[in-house]
Amino acid sequence: MLMQIAEPGQSPEPHQRKLAVGIDLGTTNSLVASFRNGRLQTLRDAAGEQLLPSVVYYGENARVLVGKEAEAMAAADPANTLASVKRLMGRSYNDVTLSPALSTYDLVDCGEDMVKLQTRAGALSPVQVSAEILKVLAARAQESLGGELVGAVITVPAYFDDAQRQATKDAARLAGLKVLRLLNEPTAAAVAYGLDEKEEGAIAVFDLGGGTFDISVLQLSKGVFEVLSTGGDSALGGDDFDQAIAAWFMQSVGLGELSAVERRQLLTACRAAKEGLSDAEQVDVALGQHLLSLTREVFNDLVDPLIDKAIRACKRALRDARLSHDDIQNVVMVGGSTRVPRVRERVGQWFGREPLVDIDPDTVVAIGAASQAEQLAGNRSGEDTLLLDVIPLSLGVETMGGLTEKIIHRNTTIPVAMAQEFTTFKDGQTAMAIHVVQGERELVDDCRSLAKFELRGIPPMVAGAARIKVTFQVDADGLLQVSAREETTGTESQVQVKPAYGLSDTDIADMLTSSYAAAGEDKEARALREQQVEAEALLQALSAALLADGEALLSEDEQKDLLSKMEVLHQQKQDGSAADIARHIEIVGAASEAFAERRMDASIKKALAGRQVDEI
Amino acid sequence: MTEIDHRDDHFALLGLPRQFDLDQGALTAAYRELQRSVHPDRYAGKSERERRIAVQKSSQINEAYDTLKSLTRRAAYLLKLSGHSVDGSNTSFTDSNFLMQQITLREELAELEGASDPEAALDAFYRDVDGAIAEHTAAFQRGFEDGDYAAAKDEYAKLQFLEKLRSEAERKEGELLDY
Ligand SMILES: Nc1ncnc2c1ncn2[C@@H]1O[C@H](COP(=O)(O)OP(=O)(O)OP(=O)(O)O)[C@@H](O)[C@H]1O
Ligand SMILES: [Mg+2]
To answer: In the prediction, which pLDDT does A616 show?
Structure first.
């Protein structure tokens, strides 16, 4: 029995239950959910609210408000009330100002870097603002679950690119949350839906929220959720419906420039009108002395072009999945904007079947994320689900003449690794620049630039003789890492794809230091505690693995060597400093690498053998 | 010591016979079974190292599945395994039927931009190119299974060409319909 403790999927002792949550970090609303009192549920705040408006207010004296209270400040102080910042994550100034949206706060042009927001608290990155929202949700969870969280599954739009995903992960890090996984929102919804319905076959998840649109086509089979394709628009949602009404209003009454306060008022009125039209046939929109009546018919005409965009993405997603309408058993509607009758009607028409609207479109994503968090924390035994997701946008490199060459195509299942060989074009060339981009277009300028890096230290050779192998590894979160190696000499260089839009590690460290200081926390003590926990986890896992497979997979010497290193780590865990422990974690880790790999190969073999027996 | 014997052979990795005609159901089932044991999510609580190895193994299995799932990629892979070069870049086609087919498709593709209903024109193009791909896939299979590698290679080169046209259309689609 003992040796099964560390097997994946096995449930630990009840008292060891780990607290993990799922967080839906939305453009308009955010939620946190967890497994509590025997079921998956959203966690409520003291006032009993589950939705936390994704709004942050920066007040006088460093006062920060999040949620409803922040929303209440929007009318009075729009410049310091930040809403919908998710649309700015991983985006540069030019990216977000190209669309002529009515903005209610000041954006700071940071050139190629991520755009910032000007507030009285200084110029803030959308990452910092998102971290405020995450902190509130994490605190809510710790309070209602009664303990520290081991981590969180955070959802992102499936169509988010590398820069947007990295920004989300950075925000979690800043909020002091360990990210167990970045999970695509439609996949999370499918999990919540699939677990309930025990459905098998192909489904489409249509997720239209406040700021983003995703369509994912999934194949469900015995707990496996295989995403076949995904598509969408990371800047299409209910916000755009509001903007369309606002533009109509301004044109109809002949309004010119508006002040920030008026813009905020108008957008709020338009949103209310839109939501009202989901029940009523006609509503009033008012700004100051101007009053107009908006009918559902006019509204439908205003939003049809936006819905057209969404439908085209559905079409492409089906084609990419190599399926036709008839293959789709169910269309699951997710996100607040799927409450718009016109959206339901058009989606139903296009798929040729009534979409499912009976699940709660607000909570389904958070519930699915919580389910996955529960599993990743190791609390679930048996009936494991397996989520196989895809990369939404192709990854490529710049080639001659500003063209892109695709290395990993969109809708490839992740994790995925692809290698590409490059060579030098000049005699004696020792460095070479590589520009990684994401997107479908042919011209580099039309794609998103993820990183530019230089490979140095290439041994001088004649032109064309060097063979530089660049490996692109995308992990299960959809994040890219690039490494390069000169094959003829074996010179290796690791490159983390981050810069362009992400925060550097020093940025994060600085922000963290200041937040510890603010919280009056001792950074040293915290680091020591973290290392001790990690050392303990490593030792426990390894002991269990040695009990299970040590004899079979390691020679006697190998076992002895590993055990003695573990012994030292055990000592260090008790008396060492954070740095000592970290160093010995590294030593034990290195010594156990081959063992870990053999164990995985053995489990592959076992899985194969199992199948072949089944087939006979 | 246990180790995977045919690290590079996607068929062996998935426990499937090395042939063009695969049972799609068996392929998918084997794939899912393997991912269940190596997917990084199964190692969430493990050390950084173990998770990295899991990412690598899982990627390897995804690559195998991705290669075998697509008929064109499966064809290329089989040719490569049987020692035939698959670089069709400088093939010149002599088959007049194919030349006609190719000209028609190219014209269709060129006319996309000016089409009054680009969506409908795209639909028609995809239908036609996918029809052609199916036709040449069948021809490839006949050649390959009869051991007529010259014919198989020729058909593969055509497939490669058709796939190129298809991705050209996808690119144009993105530009025309603004994804
Ligand atoms: N009854 C309704 N009728 C129309 N629209 C509605 C209704 N209720 C909510 N919405 C709209 O739904 C949007 C918010 O949806 P949701 O909470 O799903 O978004 P989100 O998760 O915050 O955003 P995203 O998923 O895009 O990041 C808002 O634009 C809101 O106006
Ligand atoms: Mg949402």
So the answer is: 40
